[in-house]
Task: structure prediction
Amino acid sequence: MADSSFKRVVIFASGSGSNAQRLMEYFDNHASIRIVALFSNNPEAFALERARKFNIPAQVFTREAFRNGTVLEQVKTFNPDLVVLAGFLWLVPAHFIAAYPNKIINIHPALLPKFGGKGMHGHFVHEAVLQQKEKESGITIHYVNEYYDQGAAIYQHVCPVELEDTPELLAKRVLALEHEHLPRVVEMLLQEQK
Ligand code: GAR
Result:
């Protein structure tokens, strides 16, 4: 298959990048989909190293470059069919969203619309779920709009919250669900695209 006939995915990540790694593993040698670049707002993000191990171009950007359109211009050079926010913590500017309608998705470690919004990421989410004595948590994969965690849901998967859970135990259960389902949902969305 010629390179141009692959569907192309750009990943944004801010931290460890375990979801990014799962995507890179899943689509390594995939018949029709390629991860073509990883962008990070955090020069210390381990996600950058993971990408480099897969020979995937990885680059860091500043808040200014994200706001003034420089990052959009850089992303455009990769001609993505889908942009996946995999543990990415900044709000995406409106001009960037407008450039990729229904082509930017995010994974969130809870059952939105509960436990979303600014500051609701990583362990803060799991602490809040335990504090509210929820019986269930899970993952939400959703389209991205200009508000934190408010775009339409694409896929949710529930897991139990156990009585003896700590934020760490719950985080581990939820992350395992993310790793299992995110690549599959990305694949499904790209295969549905015309
Ligand atoms: C994941 O649990 C992801 O859902 C969460 O950050 C973690 C990143 O892990 N994202 C958010 O909380 C976004 N609001 P990773 O860097 O190992 O993929």
